[in-house]
Design goal:
- By secondary structure, this protein is an alpha/beta fold.
- Helices cover about 40% and strands about 10% of the residues.
- Strands 14-13-18-19-20-21 form a six-stranded mixed beta sheet, with helices on both faces.
- The two termini are about 45 Å apart.
């Protein structure tokens, strides 16, 4: 039951009023009403962040729509109409303090840094420490999904009714909306399609609800007639419904946001649909909002429940007067503790980094380019520890190749690009000419059999007898999966069978000149325009898991939830092409004749590196590759041994086995623990154990006179890293709203999303098993520290040029530090502050 404030604002007449004639209908012909609503709906929809389908899983910042507010103000804003949380409980920070993550010195520094924002007025370090000591070390700090925080001023009618009548209307309404959305948006799962799925969602729902008796059987009498009486457009319906509730205009935005946050998952999916269709009217999200509001109004009219909305309006200004139920001192203390834990991490990180140094220029055996993903940090360090002949670089895993990749026999392709950009050309998987027809036929036949088999499983007749008929046939396969050997899992299975080609690019507007531009941009943004090694390896990454609907969330975030293998293979092909190299030479990028670009894939579950397209190598190149492969095998073993205790394994063999274990809920930790994004030359971090918590992006300011490369990094990879950081942050501090609960009870819905069990809201974030090992948090929720080796003037120019970046740093959504002339300087809205020795090293 929801924890609703005292019922002084709730009234329940002794008799139930008439349905339609209870309120004076609004004047629909008054344009100003719709202009006002359109503005309010724009504000409401801006708050919602979209969620991608499972096949293209993208880490999102669920707070992206409110980053124009400070972090502290954003929490206060959300708490007006939702139970969303941005801070961990005191017990969590007590455990962090006990584990030495921060000290009273960091608490004092945190208060100093927060004072200019006015969010900790009057709080002293002694107050904070006293609060910590008042918490029992054994007190649980895992937030329970059915235990919402303190009261808030704006609640749905269903929440009020549940409080007054001890009912479950909130849950029922979410289930009804979820049932409709699952059928309406179904992509592949349902055998019987909704007859109205081609209509916009609101119109489709009206058609469905007018014949569906389920909600009436549950107690909402006359609902079908109520739906039939509603206006035909969602905007008109919203005006009508708000009028029938007699909600004053100043409360419209907050009340509509309250409706949104009663089912945030489906609203996020609707936002994605609007974005995918480039629909300026946002008919999907507004449609769902009208649907959810209709249930509330119907409930109000059936029960006679009404709310004294005028009590929430300031009579002098005729604006909403927010009322907060939170203990302001407790919130301020937790805000200080969050900052203190972040400062503790900042100190430990800066203590390890080299703030001054230089790069070697001798030719190497190999230069290996890895994704900036935090999982690359360990294997990069272990590779470099084996030989001075090995250098590694960090770069976005799509290698600056904005392509859509179409596998053989697939009618549609995958967008192997970050969510921030769109593919500009298509690349196809291309077998040798002699094998093309056979390969296509084989894949068509395989797809046909899979389709027929799945059809039998889900058909109206077959589904009931399927287990009895075919259950025993699956026994061998089930036993095989259960007893899968580590040897089998050592083989990467995420890669394409055939390489891509350059065919068809000119027809898409990518002629030779444009291909050279693409190659030059790749090398320039990577910072590799000279000093090429014998082997330059473009190493994408992907995760190998079994029976995991969230598998794409463990693949490359820079590739839209796909592996980086196609991009790596296409990039190597491009850079090995003689005509491309000639064009690069004209741009003063000279690649030696004996330099070979090779594609590879880092399997982040097994830490194995697999190389591709090596058939045409010379004997000398084969010898070099064999030497590199030997190094990779040793580095892989070292990395697995390092990771073994973290993933709860006793050996490297046990780690490898996770890739094929169909019952494994933690095949790997993904990006759990991420805390920093370091932009600079490798000498800053080489030989430093960063514990798999940092995104590492190569950058050399001396080679970036225009600042264009820095701008590209700060507006794309840095933002993607921030999204990832915020997704893990939000899923940890508030799994109820922004996570996905218990992974063991997930069910795929519509082929695109997840439900917890068979009902409820769409799950959008990370499951508990991706954040917590059962006894403690694997992910520590801190905001991203961005450390850039560049002068403050160059960084400031980028900030001032891009409003969204300025919002992120000014409003404390991430922390920005410049490494300039051997000094560490912290960005503030007013200026850059030098971090003294006490703030850099403990």
């Amino acid at each position: 039951m929801s924890d609703v404030p005292a019922s002084q604002n709730i009234s329940k007449p002794s008799s139930i009023p008439g349905r339609r004639g209870s309120f004076t209908p609004p004047a629909y012909d008054q344009p100003h009403v719709y202009r006002q609503l359109e503005e309010i709906l724009g504000e409401v929809t801006d708050v919602v962040s979209r969620v991608w389908p499972l096949r293209d899983y993208v880490a999102i910042n669920p707070y992206d729509g409110i980053t124009n507010r400070t972090f502290s103000d954003a929490r206060s804003f959300l708490r007006i109409f939702s139970d969303c949380e941005l801070l961990m409980p005191l017990a969590f920070y007590r455990s962090q303090y006990s584990n030495g993550r921060f000290t009273i010195d960091e608490v004092r520094t945190a208060i100093q840094e927060l004072e200019p924002h006015g969010s900790v007025a009057g709080i002293r370090a002694d107050d904070v420490m006293a609060s910590l000591q008042s918490v029992s070390p054994s007190e649980s700090f895992v937030r329970k999904g059915d235990n919402p925080p303190a009261s808030r001023p704006i609640r749905t009618i269903a929440e009020h009714a549940d409080h007054v009548n001890d009912s479950q209307w909130t849950e029922i309404f979410v289930d009804e909306v979820s049932k409709f959305c699952a059928a309406h948006y179904d992509e592949s799962q349902a055998s019987w399609k909704s007859p109205w799925r081609d209509l916009p969602p609101y119109q489709a729902w009206r058609s469905t609800a007018k014949v569906d008796r389920n909600i009436e059987w549950l107690g909402l009498e006359g609902f079908r007639d109520f739906v039939d009486s509603l206006p035909h457009s969602p905007q008109a319906a919203i005006v009508d419904l708000l009028s029938r509730l007699q909600i004053p205009t100043p409360l419209w935005e907050s009340f509509l946001l309250c409706q949104v946050f009663s089912f945030p998952g489906w609203c996020a999916w609707a936002k994605y649909q609007d974005h995918a269709e480039a629909n300026e009217q946002t008919e999907h999200l507004i449609g769902l909002l009208a649907i959810r509001l209709a249930y509330d109004v119907a409930l109000s009219e059936v029960t006679g429940l009404s709310v004294k909305w005028d009590a929430m309006i300031d009579e002098q200004s005729a604006t909403f007067r927010p009322q907060h139920g939170d203990n302001e001192e407790d919130v301020a203390i937790r805000m200080v503790l969050l900052r203190a834990s972040e400062i503790g991490y900042r100190k430990s990180l800066l203590e390890q980094l080299r703030l001054e140094g230089s790069s070697e220029s001798d030719q190497k055996l190999a230069q290996m380019v890895f994704c900036i993903d935090v999982r690359s940090e360990r294997i990069r360090r272990n590779l470099e520890s084996l030989s001075p002949e090995l250098d590694t670089f960090g770069f976005a895993g799509f290698f600056a190749i904005p392509m859509e990749y179409r596998r053989l026999g697939n009618p549609s392709g995958d967008a192997n690009v970050p969510a921030l950009i769109r593919p500009s050309f298509r690349v196809k998987e291309t077998p040798p000419a002699a094998e093309t027809a056979t390969a296509i036929e084989s894949r068509k036949r395989s797809k046909l059999w899979n389709k027929l088999w799945q059809g039998l499983q889900k058909s109206a007749v077959g589904c009931f007898s399927f287990v009895e008929t075919a259950g025993l046939l699956a026994t061998g396969k089930l036993i095989g999966k259960t007893l899968a050997t580590s040897g089998r899992s050592e083989r990467t299975t995420m890669a394409s069978e055939f390489p891509p080609s350059l065919e068809g690019l000119p027809e898409q507007g990518l002629d030779l000149e444009a291909q050279v531009d693409l190659a030059a941009g790749m090398l320039t943004n990577l910072g590799l325009t000279s000093g090429f090694a014998k082997l330059v390896v473009l190493c994408g990454h992907g995760s190998q898991t079994t029976n995991n609907p969230l598998a794409a969330g463990l693949d490359c975030g820079a590739c839209g939830g796909h592996t980086g293998e196609p991009n790596a293979r296409f990039g190597a092909l491009l850079l090995n092409t003689p005509a491309i190299r000639e064009g690069l030479l004209e741009r003063r990028i000279e690649i030696p004749e004996d330099t070979l670009f090779l594609p590879a894939l880092h399997n982040t579950t097994t830490d194995r590196i697999e190389f591709f397209d090596t058939e045409s190598l010379t004997q000398s190149q084969r010898d070099d590759l064999q030497e590199l492969e030997d190094y990779c095998e040793v580095a892989s073993s070292k990395t697995k041994r390092e990771r073994a205790p973290i993933v709860g394994c006793h050996s490297a063999v046990a780690i490898a086995r996770k890739a094929l274990d169909w019952s494994e809920v933690r095949p790997e930790w993904g990006l759990a623990g991420n805390a920093a994004f370091i932009v600079g030359p490798r000498w800053m971090t080489r030989d430093v154990n960063l514990d798999g918590r940092t995104f590492l992006h190569s950058y050399n300011q001396a080679a970036d006179e225009s600042g264009e490369v820095l701008e590209n990094i700060m507006t794309a990879p840095m933002v993607v890293a921030h999204w990832i950081n915020m997704q893990y942050f939000a899923s940890t501090v508030d799994n109820r709203h922004f996570g996905s609960g218990d992974k063991t009870v997930h069910n795929v819905v519509g082929g695109f999303g997840l439900l917890s069990g068979n009902s409820g809201d769409l799950m959008t974030g990370l499951p508990i098993q991706s954040l917590h090992n059962g006894t403690s948090h694997q992910h520590i929720p801190v905001r991203l520290h961005v450390m850039i080796a560049a002068n403050t003037e160059a960084i400031s120019r980028v900030i001032e040029k891009h409003e969204h970046i300025k919002e992120l740093v000014d409003n404390d959504w991430l922390h920005l530090i410049a490494i300039d002339s051997g000094q560490a300087l912290r960005y503030t809205e007013e200026d850059w502050q030098v971090l003294d020795s006490a703030q850099v090293a403990s």
